Amino acid sequence: VFGLSSVAQVVLGRGDFGQHLSINLGFGIGVTLGIHAAGGISGAHLNAAITLTHCILGNLPWRKLPAYLIGQFLGSFTAAATVFGLYYDALYDYTKGNFTVTGPTATASIFSTYPAPYVSLPGAFFTEFTATAMLLLGILVIHDEKNNGALKGTQALLTGILVLGIGLGMGLNTGYAINPSRDLPPRVFTAIAGWGMDVFTAGDHWFWVPLTAPILGSLAGVLIHKLFIDFHNQPAPESGNEKGQPVVETS
């Protein structure tokens, strides 16, 4: 809701009510609050690529995957419907009732990502792959207690800042989907709500890239962390030190 509504405000306000930075801030705040809301219950699985990666690595039972994906899908779909209702009057005024994917009054990009006109399909795929690899690498670094992990209670905020950083630096080409759960459900909603099947054919059938590139990028991020950081971590200090001896943690 925070992310999509920030895009709607920038697009429908014709740049008078926010800029690219406000969109990035909106998504960062949304991620932070999502982690606070669900972190203690499920570990805050907000991203299908990350959930699938945990299943592949054996950190999450495969039997839980369908429930997590359904939850992510329903949450994202409901967010799109909420923002559509919130800004319906503005959408109608901006488009005169003609909801389009491309053109001078295109509004489909409020809800899902689309590649910039100059970006090739391989270039767009590489952008999403790289951005998601940075997302996973950043998340693993933030939660790496054997290295220089974040202070307890700050992980959600730092993850939101991480998403903000990805948007600030890697959002130009594709709008940084970096999450199949963030991209596909709103796309399905727009297909139903009046934009039609163009949402699946635009950008040389772009829709499959935000579904596959983040999964591969997520696995790449885990591999990078394992090879260059985790294998070199010092063992966690034992808690059973002799009485009276201070615990010294080194990195």
UniProtKB/TrEMBL annotation:
<feature type="transmembrane region" description="Helical">
    <location>
        <begin position="67"/>
        <end position="88"/>
    </location>
</feature>
<dbReference type="InterPro" id="IPR000425">
    <property type="entry name" value="MIP"/>
</dbReference>
<dbReference type="Pfam" id="PF00230">
    <property type="entry name" value="MIP"/>
</dbReference>
<protein>
    <submittedName>
        <fullName>AQP7 protein</fullName>
    </submittedName>
</protein>
<dbReference type="GO" id="GO:0015204">
    <property type="term" value="F:urea transmembrane transporter activity"/>
</dbReference>
<feature type="transmembrane region" description="Helical">
    <location>
        <begin position="205"/>
        <end position="224"/>
    </location>
</feature>
<comment type="similarity">
    <text>Belongs to the MIP/aquaporin (TC 1.A.8) family.</text>
</comment>
<feature type="transmembrane region" description="Helical">
    <location>
        <begin position="155"/>
        <end position="178"/>
    </location>
</feature>
<dbReference type="GO" id="GO:0016323">
    <property type="term" value="C:basolateral plasma membrane"/>
</dbReference>
<feature type="transmembrane region" description="Helical">
    <location>
        <begin position="124"/>
        <end position="143"/>
    </location>
</feature>
<keyword id="KW-0812">Transmembrane</keyword>
<keyword id="KW-1133">Transmembrane helix</keyword>
<dbReference type="InterPro" id="IPR023271">
    <property type="entry name" value="Aquaporin-like"/>
</dbReference>
<dbReference type="GO" id="GO:0015254">
    <property type="term" value="F:glycerol channel activity"/>
</dbReference>
<dbReference type="GO" id="GO:0015250">
    <property type="term" value="F:water channel activity"/>
</dbReference>
<keyword id="KW-0813">Transport</keyword>
<dbReference type="InterPro" id="IPR050363">
    <property type="entry name" value="MIP/Aquaporin"/>
</dbReference>
<keyword id="KW-0472">Membrane</keyword>
